Amino acid sequence: MQQKITAAITAVGASLPEFRLTNKILETMVDTSDEWIKSRTGVEERRILKGEGLGTSDMGAPAVLELCKKRGIDPLEIDLLICCTVTPDMFFPATANIICHKIGAKNAFGFDLGAACSGFLFGLTTGTAFIESGRYKKVVVVGADKMSSIVDYSDRTTCILFGDAAGAVLLEPNEEGLGLQDSLLKSDGSGAKYLHMKAGGSARPSSMETIAAKEHYIYQEGQSVFKFAVVGMADAAYELMQRNNLTGDDISWLVPHQANKRIIDATAKRMGLSPEKVMLNIHRYGNTTSGTIPLCLWDWERQLKKGDNLVLAAFGGGFTWGATYVKWAYDTN
Ligand code: UT7
């Protein structure tokens, strides 16, 4: 009997801007303190993409080139590139197209996917379907956001949270049953009111008034989002474990979206995981929205072993949330 084709992650790449916006620097910009930021969020510094005319694709493109190099493939071999982002270079064309152009992926088609902080999980599940169908052999999923382009650096409640980065994974068919096993994804538009950007879309195009009212920046009711996130992310991860008969002992790593260390701790606790099994890099990069999960995989790649069970979990604007169960497919030498 023929083994079902699964979609395995076979390479990881990332790109981080050089400039480090530390809590100390933020103390000089808004009424905040290193102590408040660290204790309430876990963030110590974030990277910011500086430079006239640089956008999300300028981080996405090097991330994809890195994974091509690691895997030893030419960008011409990529069939499909999905760019998960809420900060596209421009409304259109899609940032995926721009990345493909920048890296010379002339045989790929591409599109953007917007699911805020859960974007990478939604993209990974979408890319997996294209591999499982047997139609495509090399699908790249990029999670990239230049959050500094929509952050109001005079608003202390949001500017301390976000950073810029890109991460990317390559998906390829696998016949050993490795790769994405299951995914539980959810969205609920009634949560939109708590986390959104008021202007710049078709419902409220940018104007002098919207700019003056700072409506082109992130609007977040932090406490409300926190309450939903802490329950949503933990519930999704727990339900995914249950339906796959996994206990905490079976799981090698939790790969959580990095929005707030307290949300991550609550999810790990619900899953019965000790802190050593939790990937945490929020202190170094802050919340990079679609970038957090692939950035974790990139940071921990050398510690991951073939067959390891990973649970990826996220919660974000939309609301969108979910959890994905992945069997890691390779050892890194
Ligand atoms: O990834 C997308 C999804 N987003 C999330 O998951 C974010 C979820 N929310 C959170 O992580 C937290 O709600 C925040 C980190 C945004 C805020 O933490 P909090 O513990 O919920 O703080 P709070 O909003 O309840 O504010 C507590 C106090 C307030 O002062 P008063 O009213 O008690 O006097 C705020 O004005 O802290 C004040 N505050 C600050 N103080 C110093 C808010 N921001 C700051 C700040 N520095 N940067």
Q: Count every helix, treating DSSP H or I runs of 4 or more residues as helices.
A: 11
Strands across the major sheet, in which order?
A: 1-7-6-4-5
Number of strands: 13
The main pleated sheet reads as: 5 strands, mixed
Give the C-alpha Rg: 19 Å
Give the termini separation: 33 Å
Q: Report the mean per-residue pLDDT as an integer.
A: 97
**What is the percentage of strand-forming residues?**
15-25%
CATH topology of the largest domain: Peroxisomal Thiolase, Chain A, domain 1
Q: What ranges have pLDDT less than 50 throughout 5 or more consecutive residues?
A: none
Which architecture of the largest domain would the CATH scheme give at its second level? 3-Layer(aba) Sandwich
In words, what does this structure look like?
This protein has 333 residues and is α/β, with parallel strands linked by helices. The protein folds into two domains: 6-179, Peroxisomal Thiolase, Chain A, domain 1 (3-Layer(aba) Sandwich), CATH 3.40.47; 181-327, Peroxisomal Thiolase, Chain A, domain 1, CATH 3.40.47.10. It contains eleven helices and 13 strands. It has a five-stranded mixed beta sheet with strand order 1-7-6-4-5, sandwiched between helices. The chain has a four-stranded mixed beta sheet with strand order 8-13-12-11, sandwiched between helices. β12 and β13 form a beta hairpin. α3 (57-71) crosses α4. The two termini are 33 Å apart. The mean pLDDT is 97. The chain binds oxa(dethia)-CoA.
